[in-house]
Structures are given as structure tokens and as C-alpha cells.
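agent> call fold_tool(seq_1)
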Amino acid sequence: MAITRIHAIVEGRVQGVYFRDYTVKEACRLCLSGWVRNMGDGTVETEFQGEDSEVSRMIQWLHKGSPLSRVAGVKTNPCLVVLEEKGFEVRY
């Protein structure tokens, strides 16, 4: 089982529309660990890791987002796996 970690920036109308809460729910459904947070420029930043197939599903989900969001773009980059990380959380 290959583990992949992705850093992503989600642009568009993604704050104030429960994007972070839905991101946590989707990541947990996919058994991913990581975090999500709002940024001062109106974007949402997230890092998540897990099996390659589930990480790919999460990236696809980010392009759709929460029901009230309007995703304009998603920038992703691979990053180093954090072996000791457990769970998925909202960061402030």
C-alpha cells in the first residue's frame, strides 16, 4: 500500500460555506489524515495523506467542494508523508 501526501490550495467561494467541515467529513470517509484551514486571502489550504486511490478521490472532491461553495481552482503539490499523523482536523 503506497501512501501519498498532498498539499492543496482551493480558490473560489470556499469560506463561509462550510467547506472546512465538509472537507473533514470527506477526508474521514476516505480514511485520510491531515488538516484544513482558512487562509487570509480567502482560499482554503489543506494537506492530507493516505492510500493513492483515496488521495485521488479527495483531490476530485476538492474540485467540487461543499454544496454552497463555488470552487474556481485547486492547486496541488506532493509533499512528505507525516508518519505519526493520526486523524483529520481543522486548524485555526
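agent> call fold_tool(seq_2)
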Amino acid sequence: MSEKRIHIFREVIIVLVLSLVLVSTFNIKAVKAQAGQKTLKPSDDTYVDSSNPNSNYGGQTYLEVENSTFGSPPYQSIYQDIVWLKFDLSTVPNGAVIDGATLSLYTFFVGETFNVTACYCSENSWTELGITWNNYPRTGFISVDSLSVATSDKWYNWTVFDAVKYSQDNNLTAVTIALIEPNVHSSPTVVEFYSKESPVYFTDYSPTLTVHWSSVVPEFPTFIPLSLFMMMTLIAATYYRFKQKLPVKGIES
């Protein structure tokens, strides 16, 4: 091989090696795991009451679930209370690979054992001081977890991963979760939880949503390093062809 060709070949190899180093650097940054966790308080929490359909209970220190009957047919009435919670997800990193989400509430009063069911609702336009029984969202209810709530002064935890993941997949900045009792009780009774407005003396009993993620989607998508590598390879090939056409001093063409 002529000295001219050896010189060009050496320069091409240097350029290609630098290209590979650049791509490797981007890939290391892209796949670096960034596991993390956020515990959120609700931006809005309240409940609605079927027996007072135009009343708003935003700002109360407790949240009430009920589904019970009063009286006998044909004068029987059913009373329902539904808890509403909304959490702002904006502090969860973009591209977080969420692998867990837990809703936690602390019982204030338990009249009798309830099967409290956490339901995801896709409607986030309601507000704590505006929602009533008459105007609460009626669509998009999906049950995500149920717990038997039987004891006062105790934390209860619902797995609500599906609700948070659905919100993330649909580019929603918040998640709404409603708590209901699907079974009708034969006598008037309720379950009450502390709200975010409950006073804090020694322990904060506000509702929380804990979101955990295992990693963050690469900051540089894989197509970017690949494009860089292809571009550098093209530059190297162009440089090689260009050098072939130039005369090198001291060597005859």
C-alpha cells in the first residue's frame, strides 16, 4: 500500500473511532437508570352527598363514603356519598417509567365494615369548591382496587397504578380517583377519612399518592446516536474520496 493511501486510511480510522466514542457517550447518558419516587398530596379533595345534591363540601376536614338505605318500601331512600381526589402529576419526570402507585388515606370514623373501591375517572375539570352531587363527572369510571375498611385510626392503601399509568399514557397532567362503596348497607352508616384540610398536630393524616418509577426514558432517543454515527461515517467516506483526488507532495501520482 502506498504511503499516500496509508496516510488517508489512518485519518479515516481516526474519524471513525471518534464517531464511535461520541455515540457511546450519548448511549451511556441515554440508558442511565434514574429510579425515583414522589409522594403527592391532593390538589383537590372533597365528597358529594346524594341527600344534599346542590351542596359542596370542599374544605371539610374529613371525606365521607356512604351507600345505605333508610326506611322501608315504598318509602325507602338510598343515601350515597362519594369521595373525590385529584393529584397533580406535573412533578413526576417526563418519560418516567412508572412501576407503582399507591393511594393512602387514614380513617377518622368507621361505622361498620365497608368495601371501599378506588375508581379512576378520566375527567379532571372538577374543582374542590365547585363539585356537587348534581354536577360530578358521570363518565369514565374504572374500578382499580378495593379494600375492606373496618377499623378507625388506621392507614389504608389502594394500588392505583392503572389510574396513574392511564393518565400518563394520555398525556394528562392530573389523575382523578373516586372512592365508593358499591354495596348497599341496610342501615345508615358511613366511613370517614381525614382530608388535606385536617389539622396537623403531631402527624399529618392527609391523603397521599405515592408514585414510583424504575427509570426515565432516554433523554436522547436511539435514533439520534445512530444518525450521528451515519453522519460521521458519511463525512469520513467523503473525506477519503476527496483526499484520493489530491496530489501528495513528494509522491508521484
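agent> summarizing second result for user.
The chain has two domains: 3-31+221-245, 36-216. Confidence is low (pLDDT under 50) at residues 26-31, 248-253.
agent> awaiting next instruction.
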